[in-house]
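[AMINO ACID CHAIN]
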Amino acid sequence: MSAPRWPSTLWIVRHGESAGNVARDEAHARGAERIELSARDVDIALSPRGKTQARLLGEWFAARNADDRPEILLASPYARAQDTARVFRDSRGAAGDEPICIDERLREKEFGVLDGLTTTGIASVFPEQAEFRRVLGKFYHRPPGGESWCDVIFRLRSLIDTITLHYAERRVMIVAHQVVVLCLRYILENLSEEEILAIDREGDVANCSVTEYRFDPGRGREGKLVLESYNVVTHLEESSPSTVTAESDAAAGVRG
């Protein structure tokens, strides 16, 4: 049998609650057309609750044996993902000297002209895009200047190649965004459009939730990563239910 090419464990974490998540909720509550943010999406920081979520995640992993904690940290270049990874590491979720490797392929889905608009705003400012999304569905709809889910999947396939090349038999954690979590599931589990959208409809990917894969050498000719758990927030629920957040996918242009 050939040597394994997959990580022994792969954790995929959505970043903690961000200031953008909070502003989005406020905009929807007011029925506003646009989310009130002055910074670029890439620069949006964690909210106070988001920092707490990242700390609790780190402490949850710190209580484990050393061989059940990540030895490789990969993160989106967006501030909210980098900050989540940093707080996680500083809370002893991983070794203190473990570098956080930034990979642009893990960035948030690009929303293009729809960035920062609420559902109401998209219907008002770009009614034709609202109709295109209704007809095409979120998997294939690409707003001007933005990406479809397929576009995100295309760049993530390259990322997976990098992981299998450099991190075989290692314990890897990825910190990224809601759509990235779902698109990685699509790739790793060889899902169809219908299957991944059904998972998406079942519930949102919670902030600082953990999705875990373990390598099973008995699956297939060369072994494969097998889903162990999805969207776990036990570390937050055990501390306080108020630290758990999940957001509805109310619009194509919301920041996540």
